[in-house]
Specification:
Elements (H helix, E strand, L loop, with lengths): L7 H21 L12 H39 L9 H4 L12
């Protein structure tokens, strides 16, 4: 194994590459576009239409899924449940009523 000290030229060049990379990334960073948060009435109306257009299919999909998959599954499980029970002879045994002595 080589125990020589690390090459400082390589460390310096690696450090310069990292700093150059960071500088190029920060130069590519774009300021956020505030066009989506429009405050004009036209922008708000457009956002309402888009939100409605996205909401209606989601609600319809949920309703269709519920009525065609979930509800029949629950009803089938409920109505196919057996409500019978088993009793053995000791459960059916009724002890005789105690005799009542009229002289008591």
């Amino acid at each position: 194994m080589d125990s020589s000290p690390p090459n400082t030229t390589t460390a310096t060049s690696l450090s310069s590459i990292v700093s150059t990379y960071r500088a190029s990334i920060s130069a590519l960073t774009v300021a956020p576009n505030n066009a989506s948060s429009s405050t004009t009435w036209m922008g708000q109306a457009t956002q309402a239409v888009v939100a409605t257009a996205r909401l209606i299919p989601a609600v319809l999909l949920w309703i269709i899924t519920f009525t065609t998959i979930t509800l029949p599954t629950v009803l089938f499980t409920l109505f196919s449940t057996s409500l019978t029970f088993t009793m053995n002879a000791t459960t059916l045994y009724a002890s005789p009523a105690p005799s009542v002595d009229p002289r008591d």
